[in-house]
Design brief:
The protein is of the alpha/beta class. It is built from eleven helices and eleven strands. It has an eight-stranded mixed β-sheet with strand order 4-3-2-1-10-11-9-8, with helices on both faces. Its EC number is 3.1.1.75.
């Protein structure tokens, strides 16, 4: 096929994708504003898968003064990439090429001691909260023995990172699932546990959402059959971004999602858990093969089926699902920024994505009497 024709064809395909995305946005219901609820901001926790896991670590370190705990599924230490896409894709994960021929993940490929030193230096400069706050957090680390994207050695180095920053061993728990590939383990939703493909939710007979929430908050009340259901809402993310930044420069979608239990809607005291999807799991991502029941886009497959909402309802936990979006040529898979595509300040309080998520947290926790 002549190169000129190929180029024109690729351009037309790209324009078609933009057109479909515009229609999708136009047809979507008008997003709401996040409510101000009765939540103590110090009862905030966070979890995520893959890029969402790396981003969750960033959030819990950068804003350690408000985070109660975290659940990290297929993730690694804070500032693992050190701002290098090559390091991110070869030493912190194996994502540079499908064959993984260039992957150099090993038992010390992330260089934990350097990352700990960087963390302390950032804190001394006032770029992040005091890492001493991490000592009181409770952290659950989940990895898959068959994960070839973020191998379990990376999770082991994350645990070492926490240990060097004085997170007590009694506050850390590591779960390694023998049959899990690169996926969000669920009880019975998604692909087979050992398959790493869309929707990246795997039937592993393991309730990751419950395990994380219970590790952070203590014993949970079981969901009751016929229990009242809360409100699943789509909210406007644009107001949480700097006025001079927008979707194509921040990697943040126009809207996000939240699940609000009925009791929290009524004004009862509640808690907040932030959940960050992985790459290729954002609502606006266009998978090569449509997700079952999801239509053309990935849609709400993750936010509805990752397993958090039913536990949230019976335990007065609001669940916030911020959404990242693809940027052609820079972030085509709609990953969260843990290597620097939004700027060199990505792992600090000046990072545009971290600031946006923190602003969402501040808004939703602002209704406490």
């Amino acid at each position: 096929m002549p190169q000129s024709f190929t180029g024109r064809l690729q351009h037309l395909v790209f324009l078609l994708v933009l057109f479909v995305a515009a229609l999708h946005s136009a047809w979507a219901a008008k997003p709401e504003q996040l409510p101000a609820l009765n939540i103590d901001v110090r009862e905030t926790s966070i979890s995520g898968l893959s890029s969402g896991a790396f981003m969750s670590v960033q959030f819990q370190v950068v804003y350690s003064s408000i985070v109660k705990g975290a659940g990290i599924v297929a993730g690694g230490p804070y500032f693992c990439s050190q701002g290098s896409p090559l390091r991110a894709t070869t030493q912190c994960s194996c994502t540079l090429d499908p064959a993984h021929d260039l992957c150099s993940v090993s038992s010390n490929s992330t260089n934990v001691s350097t990352l700990v030193s960087d963390t302390r230096q950032f804190a001394a400069q006032g770029l992040i909260d005091d890492p001493a706050n991490l000592s009181r957090q409770r952290v659950l680390i989940v990895s898959g023995e068959k994960d070839e994207t973020v191998p379990p050695q990376v999770a082991a180095q994350l645990s070492d990172y926490y240990g060097q920053l004085a997170v007590r061993a009694s506050n850390r728990s590591e779960v390694r699932l023998s049959k899990a590939a690169h996926t969000m383990p669920t009880v019975n939703y998604g692909k087979d546990c050992g398959v790493a493909e869309s929707p990246y939710l795997g039937k592993c007979h393991y309730d990751t959402a419950k395990a994380i929430l219970e590790w952070v908050y203590g014993p949970l009340k079981k969901p009751q059959q016929g229990q009242a259901l809360g409100r699943f809402m789509q909210f406007d993310q644009r107001g949480y971004l700097p006025k001079d930044r927008f979707t194509w420069t921040t990697g943040m979608d126009n809207t996000g999602w939240a699940y609000i239990p009925e009791a929290c809607e009524r004004g009862e005291a509640c808690r907040l858990h932030v959940v960050l999807h992985g790459c290729r799991q954002g609502q606006s991502y266009l998978p090569l093969r449509p997700v079952s029941g999801g239509g053309l886009y990935y849609g709400t497959t993750f936010v509805r089926n990752a397993g958090y909402n039913r536990w949230a309802e019976s335990n007065r936990i609001v669940v916030l699902y911020p959404q990242a979006v693809s940027i052609p040529g820079i972030n085509p898979n709609g990953c969260w920024d843990w290597w620097g595509y939004t700027g060199a300040d990505f792992p600090t309080k000046d990072g545009v994505q971290l600031k946006a998520i923190r602003a969402m947290v501040d808004r939703i926790t602002s209704g406490r009497p």
